[in-house]
């Protein structure tokens, strides 16, 4: 009987792994070409509202010629402001929108580790539901977190971080203080070095790069 149970468990584990691989294979991938290099994103099917909206905007060429207008070293790079397409040097950016917001789609399995793709939003004071911008997004650069700090954060956190998430934060890094406040709806599968390069560019007092970083996007297989 024990052998049968073990074999059953092995089969179920293999099937779950195959299902996960198939789900990953079906995830939409988006290529962002920037003046600093190419970034490839994978969108999560588990956040369908954000996924579908992003795909729609990419197919409509909405993001083409927009800028990464807010770039903070060891934190993140942000883009998607429609006003950035025609912005003059030094012009303040970040308030542009597309006319609608998206309901939050928080998932405990998706956190702000390095390379996470998330939706920007207005602050809690005017946006208590934490609804996402319909167009602005950011990609996490972040910093490596000590395991001690992650354990301290986890002590008062619900739901708790998994061991794998703590390991990720303490090895590749990220921005854990954003978890539960912003919707993560994808991650970088190629081009982390490009994100770092962009995040290190000299910026003005509003964190806009002094050298414009334009983008264009397309759906890829």
| Strand percentage | 15-25%
> Whole-number radius of gyration?
19 Å
Strand count, sense and barrel status of the largest sheet are:
8 strands, antiparallel
Order of helices and strands: HEEHEEEEEEHHEHE
Head-to-tail CA distance between termini: 45 Å
3D structure, described in words:
It is a single chain. Helices cover 28% and strands 21% of the residues. By secondary structure, the chain is α+β, with helices and mostly antiparallel strands. An 8-stranded antiparallel sheet has the order 3-4-8-6-9-2-1-10. The chain has a two-stranded antiparallel sheet with strand order 5-7. A hairpin with a 3-residue loop joins strand 3 and strand 4 (76-79). The model is unreliable at 1-22 (pLDDT under 50).
Provide the descriptors you would attach to this structure in a database record:
single chain; 221 residues; eight-stranded antiparallel β-sheet; two-stranded antiparallel ribbon; 10 strands; 21% strand; globular
Brief sketch in words of this structure:
This protein is of the alpha+beta class and 221 residues long. It has helices at residues 2-25, 48-59, 147-155, 163-171, 192-199, and strands at residues 29-34, 37-43, 68-72, 76-79, 101-102, 116-119, 132-133, 137-140, 184-190, 215-220. 28% of the residues lie in helices and 21% in strands.
């Amino acid at each position: 009987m024990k052998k049968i149970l073990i074999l059953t468990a092995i089969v179920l584990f293999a099937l779950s792994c195959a299902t996960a691989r198939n789900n990953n294979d079906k995830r939409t991938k988006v290529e962002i070409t920037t003046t600093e290099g190419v970034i490839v994103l994978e969108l999560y099917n588990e956040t369908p509202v954000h996924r579908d909206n992003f795909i729609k905007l990419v197919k409509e060429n909405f993001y083409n010629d927009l800028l990464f207008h807010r770039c903070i070293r060891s934190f993140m790079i942000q883009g998607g402001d429609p006003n950035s397409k025609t912005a003059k040097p030094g012009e303040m950016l970040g308030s542009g929108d597309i006319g609608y917001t998206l309901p939050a789609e928080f998932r405990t399995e998706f956190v702000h580790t390095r390379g996470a793709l998330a939706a920007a939003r207005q602050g809690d004071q005017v946006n208590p539901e934490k609804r996402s911008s319909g167009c602005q997004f950011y990609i996490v650069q972040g910093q490596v977190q000590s395991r001690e700090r992650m354990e301290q954060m986890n002590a008062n956190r619900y739901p708790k971080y998994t061991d794998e998430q703590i390991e990720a934060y303490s090895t590749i890094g990220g921005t854990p203080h954003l978890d539960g406040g912003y919707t993560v709806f994808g991650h970088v599968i190629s081009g982390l070095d490009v994100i770092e390069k962009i995040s290190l560019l000299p910026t003005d007092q509003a964190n806009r790069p002094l050298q414009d970083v334009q983008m264009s996007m397309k759906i890829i297989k």
